[in-house]
Amino acid sequence: MARHKRIETEEQGDPEMNISSLIDCCFLLLIYFLVATTLVSEKKIDMAAPATQSESNEAPPPDKASITIQSSGAVLYNNDFTVGGAISSSEFESKDYARQKGHLTQLVERLKTLRQRTKAQGAEPLVLLRCAKSVPHQRVIDVLSALAEAGISAVAVERGSVE
Length: 163
Known about the structure:
The chain is of the alpha/beta class. It has helices at residues 20-36, 89-93, 95-100, 105-120, 137-150; strands at 64-69, 75-77, 81-84, 126-131, 155-159.
């Protein structure tokens, strides 16, 4: 039998990675991007001072109207003039009510006057429609029909703010 001679190998340490070339590449990229990017210089903001009212050429704000529908069905124009009386629920179901279109002819006349006045100023009329929660839907539809008949389309509706 042949004897085998053992060759002793030197003990090697932990493998290490040489990262000096990687660091060199990172610094080169950093320098490249610093040179290649354009630096934004701050500029002052050109701003004109707001004009006073005497210098303003703008039209005055358009007239605004408020229509309030109370829980009884009464319709108020600008909270001081009643243009539609109180309506009971049985009157809503009658044929006479449908024929009279909700008794809102005075409201239509006032809205047409408002529209003519604001059109003369070169603006659109604005109307805020406020109604109580318990108002029958038909009464709100009647008021919206009166607004449409007067040619007013800019309407904001606020519900539940009236008692």
